[in-house]
Structure prediction request, 698 residues.
Amino acid sequence: MELGDRKKKILQLIIESYIETAEPVGSRYIAKKNDLSLSPATIRNEMADLEEMGYLEQPHTSAGRVPSQAGYRFYVDQLMERYFMTMADMERVNQALKLQTEEIDKIISRVCQVMSDVTDFTTVAVTPKHDKSRIKKLDLVMIDAHSFLAVIVTDSAVVKNKLFRTSGTIDERTLKLFSGILNQTLANISIGSITFDMINSLKKAMPEYANELVPVLNFVHEVVTQLDQSNLYMRGANNILKYPEFADLDKARSFIEFLEDGEAVGEIIKSVPEGVEQTSIIIGSENKNPHMQGSSLILRTYKIDDSAYGCLGLIGPIRMDYRKAVSDIEYFGSRLSQLFEEIFHGGES
Amino acid sequence: MELGDRKKKILQLIIESYIETAEPVGSRYIAKKNDLSLSPATIRNEMADLEEMGYLEQPHTSAGRVPSQAGYRFYVDQLMERYFMTMADMERVNQALKLQTEEIDKIISRVCQVMSDVTDFTTVAVTPKHDKSRIKKLDLVMIDAHSFLAVIVTDSAVVKNKLFRTSGTIDERTLKLFSGILNQTLANISIGSITFDMINSLKKAMPEYANELVPVLNFVHEVVTQLDQSNLYMRGANNILKYPEFADLDKARSFIEFLEDGEAVGEIIKSVPEGVEQTSIIIGSENKNPHMQGSSLILRTYKIDDSAYGCLGLIGPIRMDYRKAVSDIEYFGSRLSQLFEEIFHGGES
DNA sequence: GTTAGCACTCAGGGAAAGCGAGTGCTAACA
DNA sequence: TGTTAGCACTCGCTTTCCCTGAGTGCTAAC
Prediction:
């Protein structure tokens, strides 16, 4: 059965009113608040139809109607209009994103916080995996006769380092020799394709320097493993307590606990297709993870460079303001992509 | 008025029972549960005395007694016995602290999480300021003809780095020259004493290299500022929801919000005297910050090296198990100090 | 100094009653 | 045929009232 324009309008009004007030919506309310020039009785008939079609539900006989999950889905797919962020909010975001740092993790963590402040939702963000980037340079810098620093720089501008203390003394020449060999083998290969075996065979190749070299190779392995993973940030967990849906303390607590466990949340976010900047809306039981089935999740990918995409997320009750959430997250996503564009391709710094 | 042994014993029993059950404690209960060989009536007399002295309170006439803040204070100062962690818990902590990394921030963040898991409290941790450490080496590593990496290493083994893209091409010799000058001026001075003026005069000293050098000097300034601050970690905010004291959602929410705001919490923790490994207990309104006055805070300093101390904290309701909290945090603190001792003075790595 | 006995207090829980928002159905109307 | 007024009905919420029971303070006896 196709939905007529009037039914669509009524459904939209009900959903938006419910989103705002969290109260079941009655026919009288719809008739009065909006100039549909229809009587409550007529609205009631339409509402009964919408319920039959599965878009609305009734908590109990004498209450108004509440959107069903299918209702929300229809709403976000077909009814939802674009929301425009106020200039004030945009300005606020832009101010907050004026950072001195270029460290990806710091930036993402900050965005996560600002987004939580602005949207009043719980926000999550994952930094991209760097499995497709390459080691550009591996250098060993002498600090003093008993210690040196290993530095790894990737073409995606990630730098990792570690200090080493040596058992004997060490000189610049030996370090140069080491770094030459390491660079030859490991540079310009994508991180994802550096294997444990590769590193192991390097270890065996130079038994005379094993004492100093093995720790460095372990470090390389550690870095490669690290870059192959993404970090997760979460902020504003307290925000979910603002919604009456989480008035039950136990429910709220176990949900926050779930959110604090990065692994699980990361798992969910990984399901988002990489490589395109897009927004996904996952409503209630559309979530695979049972903990999330009482909530909705809005995800938005952002781009660091062609080989690295990260993801932002907003978590709220199923009755969340999808209109605002979507436009907010899209603004953050685009600002973030833009920010990285400036940092990595914006000429010298 | 001096407290007799019997009064002390009764006060202790009341406090420990209240900590356990969160229910006001009646005279009958104390008489039955413990073999004081006293009748409820006698206990009542003693309780009335303790109330008069300000150690106990009565929520209402027909309820039992509840410890007052002064009661808790007396308890932690004079009555509390040592609690011994179970071997199982210790083992669990030790397992969780087996980390591959030597990055201070990662370690602290991890400890914070484990501590929250083990203790069921909200935990905070601050990393030390490094204002007393010195720049040991400042190196510029050439990456390719258009970019180089600046690396700063301090004597407290902190490494910071940043990539620079240059407008023109650059060669190793120029970088050597730069790093020579920078090292000469900035190395072996304590971070806290490197001033903005100092950096500014360096900028002016070499106008011909301004293009490349100024960004590096800005970076130095940034690093110095960063090292002068401490980072704060917080975990297990959801844990406070486990306590009936926070059953009021609004209260709980605003408290979690307060905790998520690092600044404010950092401010509180800074009040702890540095330089000694010790435990402080701050009960309810002894906290200066009004948000904290409904909670108690246990703080414990830990040592990274002679010039750098950090701090761990447990946050719970005033009715918290001080006995367990104190011994838990002390175990964590000592393990942490020990860990850093191994990392920084344990010979080669 | 300790204890038994007793009257008194008061928060919390449960039942009962009343309220009111909202419905579905029917019949009349355009 | 779609719309609307009217009306009886449903049912969750709130308020009120009462009762219960844990716990107290006081008094008098041991």
Remarks:
- Chain B touches chain A through 39 residues (CB under 8 Å).
